[in-house]
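Z., the sequence and structure:
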Amino acid sequence: MSDEQHLLQEIEGYFHEKIPITRAMGIRVVLYDKRQLILQAPLALNHNHLGTAFGGSLSAVATLAGYGMIWLALGDRNCHVVIRDSALSFRRPVRGDIRAVCRLPEEKRMEVFKLDFARKGKARIALKVTVEEEGEVAVDFSGTFVAIK
């Protein structure tokens, strides 16, 4: 098993064990390449009365993409990650599986975040996540995450 596959299994297992709703939602970790994290959840388990993705599920998957990115980027499996605040903008309905993409912020911001975490045992960072369908952004998410030793 490659290192990347091991990390995908590790974060997905962590989600399913520590955040039980992720199992019920069918959340899977599709990709992590140290630049981006992609999570996916099937529409069949996350739809509303109109047959499109439920807003709460869209929010949850986007939040988890940011959470997972911080957890993986820090490399500290004992840290606690929490969300401080978030905002969503729903641009269009999602008619297929939910696919949330969190891209790592620019290197300088990540360096400051990691340095604060190492020095103070606590750090926060703002992340952007998009929910994408057929190459188009359906949801914009922005959130501030806090990592605590």
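The radius of gyration is 15 Å. The chain has one domain: 3-148.

Let me know what you think.
H.
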